[in-house]
Design brief:
heterodimer; A: 11 helices; 0% strand; B: mainly alpha; Vanadium-containing Chloroperoxidase, domain 1; 11 helices
Chain lengths: 255, 251
């Protein structure tokens, strides 16, 4: 039954593909533009870190969000790699998926479609903001869903249920982190580091904020390249390793 | 003479190309990954800013650096587009260039090789770090040279003189702004905003830090796409979608 719903929803959304070149390219932009996908969440959390009133509470919530986001990333990634493989809509032979204008189907997408780790991370951050401020949180949850998750369905990278699962994991992870005592436990060394070595602290914080804002793109790319280097040295032929030097835009982040 | 020197340097690096698949890919990573190109400088500059509300001289220098970096990027871009066209080493048919493993498709053939705006931005930021602290600044300049610039020569994206040209633009721009009063003027407004609306201030701080660290990739892509859409609506559709983005290979 879930499959029927998934299939119907994807078919509905896919019916808009190829109708307008400009619209398709605009959605394609959203798939890749970190400025719109992830940065806004990181920006809001940064703002709250430096807010004057209620600083301890705010900072605690920011820490919970980061912990929850990290946990969500690990869970969704592990599930994708180790769980039952699910082909992405654009690759699924059971579906007649039409690629939007200007996009090419990826030759080979690693990892299962389920669950979506982009949704996991995005919605985790959005939920954290919800814990800080209800109204802003609702805005960010909608933002995350419309600008980060829907485009991925539109491009056949995920099924709606993958997105839903990722969202649930993200929200639950942050909620659990916030209810636990982990953030309090973490707050002390963090506060100490900030007080004692502020320069180093802020440099590292900015580095981490940047990585979050890019969904750790550079780290993941480096990981892929290293993994390929090992594979390359094990296999005799060079040409069998079909790794694009840089992932093509519409499949860059199969998460 | 410059061309000879350029070719000599190019050849010296190119002799290693395709010898090691792993090494080529690691260097390729440096060419594309924003994490290594501008982020380190932005992180250091941000740290100095956040540490010193009571160090106006530092803040003034950081602001000057930022403004100078924008200026340098602008100048290099304009020069690339409007100046005499120079083919990149790997696109130059008169040069026997061996493309290292893992090189991207050549998307940059339309841009002139001179000057390198990556070099301009990186060196401008590194110069700014130098203003704050001599030793860290030297490390920053070495990083800019070794990690940011040399890989680009290795991959045939630029000649050494393009890098030098970009670096000069970067240093001169920062120097000019530092010598002017521009930064003081802006600093006053900045301090007020930071004091009155810290949340907004640090949110914008983060946005700016991110944009500089990505060389404003998303904004540049948007601009290019908008231009593309406009021209598309006005004429026949182009056969191929425009250049790849999210690769950081835009110069």
């Amino acid at each position: 039954m879930l499959w029927d719903i998934d299939k119907a929803l994807v078919a509905f959304i896919n019916s808009y593909a190829q109708k307008s070149w400009a619209f398709d390219r605009a959605i394609s932009f959203l798939i890749n533009a970190d400025t719109v996908k992830a940065l806004p969440f990181v920006v809001v959390l940064t703002g709250y870190w430096f807010a004057r009133g209620n600083q301890t509470e705010h900072r605690r919530t920011v820490l919970s969000t980061l912990i929850g986001a990290f946990v969500a990333m690990v869970i969704t990634r592990a599930w994708q790699n180790l769980g039952p493989a699910r082909p992405r809509p654009q690759q699924d032979p059971l579906l007649d998926f039409v690629m939007p204008s200007g996009a090419t189907r990826a030759e080979r997408l690693d990892w299962s479609s389920f669950p979506s780790d982009t949704a996991g991370l995005t919605m985790a951050l959005a939920f954290g903001i919800f814990l800080l401020n209800r109204r802003l949180g609702v805005v960010m949850l909608i933002w995350g869903f419309v600008l980060s998750c829907l485009p991925r369905i539109y491009f056949g990278l995920h099924y709606p249920s993958d997105i839903a699962a990722g969202t649930l994991i993200g929200i639950l992870a942050v909620y659990s982190a916030d209810r636990s005592s982990l953030p309090d436990w973490l707050a002390r060394p963090v506060g100490l580091a900030e007080a004692r070595w502020p320069g180093l602290f802020y440099a590292v914080a900015l580095f981490v904020a940047f990585q979050l804002s890019t969904y750790f793109f550079d780290i993941r790319t480096a990981g892929k390249r290293i993994a390929n280097a090992f594979e390359h040295h094990r296999s005799a032929e060079v040409e069998t390793i079909a790794v694009p030097a840089v992932p093509s835009p519409d499949t860059e982040d199969p998460g | 003479m410059i061309q000879e020197l350029d070719l000599w340097i190019l050849g010296a690096l190119n002799q290693f190309a395709t010898r090691s698949w792993t090494a080529d890919h690691l260097i390729g990573l440096l060419v594309n990954a924003d994490t290594f190109k501008a982020l380190p400088f932005v992180a250091v500059l941000s740290a100095y800013w956040l540490v010193g509300p009571d160090r106006p001289a530092d803040r003034r220098n950081i602001l000057s650096t930022l403004i100078g970096a924008f200026l340098a990027m602008g100048i290099s871009r304009v020069w690339q587009n409007l100046g005499p066209m120079r083919a990149r080493p790997r696109s130059d048919s008169s040069i026997d260039f061996v493309l290292p493993h893992g090189a991207d498709h050549d998307l940059l053939a339309s841009w002139s090789s001179f000057p390198s705006d990556t070099a301009a931005l990186s060196v401008a930021l590194a110069a700014g770090v130098f203003l704050l602290n001599r030793r860290v600044g030297i490390a920053a300049l070495v990083w800019a040279l070794v990690v940011v610039c040399i890989p680009r020569i290795y991959f045939g994206l630029h000649f050494a003189s393009d890098i030098l040209g970009g670096a000069t633009i970067g240093i001169l721009s920062v120097w000019l702004v530092v010598r002017s009063r521009f930064a003081d003027w802006i600093l006053r407004g900045v301090n007020v905003v930071e004091a009155r609306w810290p949340v907004l201030f640090y949110a914008c701080f983060m946005i700016l830090a991110f944009q500089v660290s990505t060389y404003f990739l998303d904004l540049r892509v948007t601009g290019a796409k908008l231009a593309h859409v406009v021209s598309y609506q006005m004429s026949e559709p182009s056969p191929e979608p425009e250049a790849e983005f999210k690769t950081g290979t835009l110069p």
